[in-house]
Protein 1
Amino acid sequence: MFEYDTARLHEIAARGLEMARRLGATDASVDISESSGLSVNVRKGSVETIEQTRDKGVGITVYVGKRRGHASTSDFADLALSETVAAAFEIARYTGEDDCAGLPDADQLATDLPELDLFHPWQISVEEAVDLACRMEGAAFATSPLIRNSEGASVSVTHGHFVAANSLGFAGGYPYSRHSIGCSPIAQRGQSMQRDDWYSSSLMPARLADPVKVGRYAAERALSRLGARQVDTCKVPVLFEAPLACGLLGSFVQAVSGGSLYRRSSFLLDSLGKDVFAPHIDLVEDAHLPAEMGSSPFDSEGVRTGRRTVVSAGRLHGYFLSTYSARKLGMKTTGNAGGSHNLTLSSRLTRQLDDLPAMLERLGTGLFVTDLMGQGVNGVTGDYSRGASGFWVENGVIAYPVEEITIAGNLADMFKGIVAIGGDVIQRGGKRTGSILIDRMAVAGA
């Protein structure tokens, strides 16, 4: 599966650090990785693409005092490695000084590396992947004669491993896997045509959803949108389907991440210790959950990770900071170089029976959003305006599908206006939440 074993990656990383030291670098770090993958796409029962990939690379970061240089190569040979280190060193020599540049403090580096069970290879052949995709798409077509077309079905398999090391003595790495299946059918009735999709992803093949169920559910979603129409402009409660709620969580993470904060380009500036969500909302980050895609024993700088409460009872207790952004803010890194790890958004009011029908009942009369379009999120002001489609709900029951509408609000108000989070929890990457009900948003339609 891999051309190089872990011991060999460690040897190459150590050699790169030694080369940097000999050139006169104050400090250095090396990231070395190798991956392989398979991606299959079929459409209307025929193979459209088969891609098999194999990648490898070394990234060298060199510090000369407070100057930083970086270079990379895909060649693991000694000569290429030496040239890459020299290139990074030359860049560092002529780069302006930055007081915040440098490796993490030694006492912040990970020393005990827990085994998190992140590697589950999927030994699937091209023929088996094609058959799986065809069965998934076939299930979509079999759902109804109104499924007239398809944008295809896909199977994706990724295996990789890496080693990160630096001149402070840190060296760590692990193998990982990423797998997914998905389907995008198109429904048509008369002149009305609608598409939708569904997918399942996991690092464990056994955790992927049944491909037949994925195809059928994707088809049911497309069929449910037929006959969609606009609604009159109004201000009503809005329920975000769980996958879209993960996107809202992503907007929050961006707003309280170091880059946005030290550039002062966030609507949540200076919000630490302040109420940023409704008082029943909690947000927990846990990087050490076994066999989860968002888990890691250390961040991309080698800083130790763990479990922490980011939001408790609506109040913000922590940012998402790398070493550099933390220094810019006069703070300590939170182990989030490279991003967040396994975020779970929850409500203290959620009951076990708060499934989607229960959330629609709590919505009453308003909008249930299942798809969003455009990039209308202003991270500086928090203004939120996006094209949307979904369903109009009356008295807790879906009345009809809607499309060609725009929903608008401000993220600061939306976060504080969360009425409920459903028990219909879904995980998308490293984010986990149920559907989110916002008390009031503007809906622009006909």
Note: The first helix runs from residue 6 to 23.
Protein 2
Amino acid sequence: MSRPEIEVRALHKSFGDNEVLRGIDLEIGRGEVVCVIGPSGSGKSTLLRCVNLLEEPSKGQVFVGGTEVTDPDVDIDAVRRRIGMVFQQFNLFPHLSVTENLTLPQRRVLGRDKAEAARVAAENLARVGLSEKADAYPASLSGGQQQRVAIARALAMGPRVMLFDEPTSALDPELVGDVLAVMRGLAEDGMTMMVVTHEMTFAREVADRVVFMDGGVIVEDGSPGQVIGSPRHERTRHFLSRLLDPAMAEVEEGTSGQGGGETP
């Protein structure tokens, strides 16, 4: 059996006295799409950021492509070249054109020449459906287009895995669909993906597995049909009922404000 593309072992992360991750064990296979869901403060984004060491774990190990990211002697820059990361915010350089946003990291990090970097940039802009925006500047693009450029920029580096941290949460609802369509395409192409998301339809239709986190631990890990469609744990059912029924969430918030309800 081949080694997992992403492997997390007994991972802990604390910020001062606040233990955000409490012993996470997780494996993601090559070409697998895993969506991580859960309430705010459950540790989802911290877990994602520990995978490429944007956050340094307090204890535990992380492996990507068989290399231990948490080894003190690891060449973290070399490891990060294999990992594409897409954040909530787009983080594009406003003074650079779309093509320049894609070519600059390739030339500086990978040492590609200008022509090769431009060719790879054009390929990946086409992949996200934005070839016509190659010479545009970020300010002239919609939020959804900027996020698709950010995805293309990550893909231009040739990653083995892609990490997405709530990639649609900063977008207007009508712009979400185009970004999710690009992510669906990546999944169909066999990209290994770890996606922190609140988009339940995407998780249900695209993910191979769904992981539900709460309180810094993994509560459930299984198929979308199991975790979203027929959750075993009350914590999962409570979260999904609030997410899928905003009216219920408002009622519960009002009840909890009177001292009688469960806090999220």
Note: The mean pLDDT is 90.
Protein 3
Amino acid sequence: MIELSDVHKSFGNVEVLKGITASVQKGEVVCVIGPSGSGKSTILRCINGLESYDRGEISIEGLKVHRDAPTIVEIRTQVSMVFQRFNLFPHRTALENVVEGPLFVKQEPRAEAYERGRALLARVGLAEKADVHPPQLSGGQQQRVAIARALAMQPKAILFDEPTSALDPELVGDVLGVMRKLADEGMTMVVVTHEMGFARDVADRVLFIDGGVIVEQGPAKALLNQPQHPRTQDFLRRVLHPL
């Protein structure tokens, strides 16, 4: 479904992606792990067309992804993104946030969009919060609204950019629970995360990225339990057994 071939990206003189080649199959859950500043979030933003890339190619079901391509709006409706900091409109209710895309991007009938929006809020355990504004919600609740908003576009895949890193530890489980259900239902997902337990239990594959390159990739349990590359071993030792 998603193909990256020798993707390079620089910000000024700093080369952030140094030739990323990877693929994601339909229905697959791929977790991307690595230290801060390694290029993980930049990969997601390039897949979604939020960032342009300098060379190489990204395609989604054969459609080339480029920020200025005529198909970029179509691509963004097919590949939703959930951000670290929720990115909800504070002046709109939870339900209004969820229906924004279907109403204004996909031009769906209002009654249909609102009916599905309420169903999606119920699906993420927030049926009773439909008329509440984001500032009155906890971080975990806001992130679940953001997931409902992503689902409202009826996407073929969802990109998650460290969806739990801004949350208090006790709120993380609710968000991961929703993501586990999506994985069980066959949603194609690319997840940048520091939640190694989630990656081990839910992901089909894991990519370990450092310094803008894929250092190691493989089946999730194999890579996380028995990493082969010394850099992966060192990273996981630090993450799983911090001093």
Note: The chain has nine helices and ten strands.
